[in-house]
Each structure stands twice: as structure tokens, then as C-alpha cells.
Amino acid sequence: MQANEQEGLAWDTYHHVFELVHNGNMSFRENRMEEAINFYSRANSIKSGDPVILSNRCAAYLRISLFLKHRSPSASEYKPLSGLDPTIHAELGLKDAEKVVDLRSNSVKSYLLKANALFLLEKYEKVRDVILSGLQVDPFSDSLQASLKKLEKTLASLMGMSTHGQPERTDDFDCTVCLKLLYEPVTTPCGHSFCRSCLFQSMDRGNRCPLCRTVLFISPRTCSISVTLKNIIQKNFPEEYAERKQEHDSMSNYGVDLIPLFVMDVVMPCQKFPLNIFEPRYRLMVRRIMEGNHRMGMAIIDSTTGSLAEFACEVEITE
């Protein structure tokens, strides 16, 4: 009773928090992670900042993120994912882990939780820093030593290092849509990487990941390039990446005298014209125009001859 008073909780409140945490632990053991998170969140709303509650909820978030990242494509095909994606779960787990580290900076488990969250977010340099900080607390921690070895192995595979220390070209850096070296790679919330143009060309036909069929809520305007992955590819395969860039530029830059022609309607000079485009082929054309000089020609079919009109108007896509 004295311990409860020191924590500022009445006995009935303490008992309620204890029951919530106990139920959360039971759900965790039975692999019902969403239910466990709900119990831990309710307990945290009553007893905010408790390191045990936060660490348990962090572990549940990370377990869900790990499950979603390693979910088989066949399972996603039959039952598409909904709700939060693996990255969001990992970020929520990281927030809890950072609070736990602040509360228990002398605990190895705190650093291990934070390192696991950062590992799922693929922030490998920060993972190393956290592990080294944890090893200062306990230099002989087996779990932290194992995490450090896992990190080194992952970084080595990303760099594609052969036994002689030279970059080795593997299909790990290939786009699964075009089967070529990734160019301007974009990593989806479900953890798969594609060429930026390949991904959005695929999404013209439906907003699902081309590999695992996860529903994606991203757009070309808001989705940024994976800078880390791009730098790794450019550093290790500069010649092949330059060839991919040249190939991409040739498809979007038509030269001084060549512009794409869109047969649709008459547009007069200085007239603003809204484009309502739904077909995938036209979406692809407009996206390539936006990657170039934003200009195209618009013309109509001459009703008297049934052929393309002799004159067209050059227009610029402004939005």
C-alpha cells in the first residue's frame, strides 16, 4: 500500500492498471498484438510514463511491424492488408523505446528495444550508435553483441561485398517490375523497393504494391526517393546507374524540336484547359511530360478528312 501511495495511485487504480497490463501480457503471449497494444495504451493513459508499460507496448508494436514486413506475397494476395503499415508500427515502437531509454538509461533492454525499432526502420547508422551506447552500460551483453553482429551482416549484404571486398552485382538491387537496376528507388510502406517510374506506372492500374499487393496510400507528389538506397547503388554501380539515367532521360526529354502530341480537343492560345485523364497510358504520358519540360502539343481530328489537323497548340502543364 505504501508503494502505491508513493507512485501517486490509489489501491483500486493500481489494481486496475495491474489487470490491464496482465491482460496485455496474456494477449501478447497468444500473439494477439492489436489487443495487447490496446490494453497497454489504456494502462499508460492511467499511469503515464511507466517504463514497464511502455517497453511492453513497444515490443508489441515491433512484433506487428516484423510480422507485416515478412508477410508472404500469397497471404497478401488472398487477404490485402489494411490499417497501419509496418513503418508506422516501427515508428510508434521507436517513440516508446526512446521514452524507456530516458527512464531507464542503465538497462540493456531499453537500448535493445530502441535498436530493434531503428533496425526495422532501416536506420542502420543510428542502430550502431544505440548498440554501442548499450554496450557502455554492459560490455558483456550477449543480446547487444548478437544485435551488432546482425547489423554488420545486414550492412555487408546491402553493400554487396564479395569475399575479396569488391562490390558484387546481385538482383537485390534490381526492380521487380522492369527487372533492371533500381533508378530513383522508392521504398513503399510495406518495405519493397521499386524504380519510381515503375511503381507509379503500376499504380495507374490500382493502388497496390506490385509485389505483395498491399494497399498503398502514396502519390508521386508526396513520395520521396530513398536517398540511402540510391547512394548505395550509385556508389557501387556508377556505370550501370549512369546508363539507367540516360535511358530514363531519353524517355522524358524529347529534345528541342520534339514534343509529345495529345489528340483531344482544341485549345486556343492563352486558354486554360482542365485535363481529366483516367486511362493508364495517358497518365504515363502526362507523368513523363512533368518529368521533362512540362510541354506538349494538343490537336484534334479534322472531321472533314478524318485525319489529324494540320495545326496544333503547344501547351504547358502548370499543376
From TrEMBL:
It comes from the Eukaryota. Keywords: Metal-binding, Zinc, Zinc-finger. The keyword rRNA-binding does not apply. GO terms for cellular component: cytoplasm. SUPFAM superfamilies: PUA domain-like (SSF88697), RING/U-box (SSF57850), TPR-like (SSF48452). CDD domains: RING-HC_LONFs_rpt2 (cd16514). Gene3D superfamilies: LON domain-like, Tetratricopeptide repeat domain, Zinc/RING finger domain, C3HC4 (zinc finger). Signal peptide: none annotated. GO terms for molecular function: ubiquitin protein ligase activity; zinc ion binding. SMART domains: RING. Residues 175-213 form the RING-type domain. This is LON peptidase N-terminal domain and RING finger protein 1-like isoform X1.
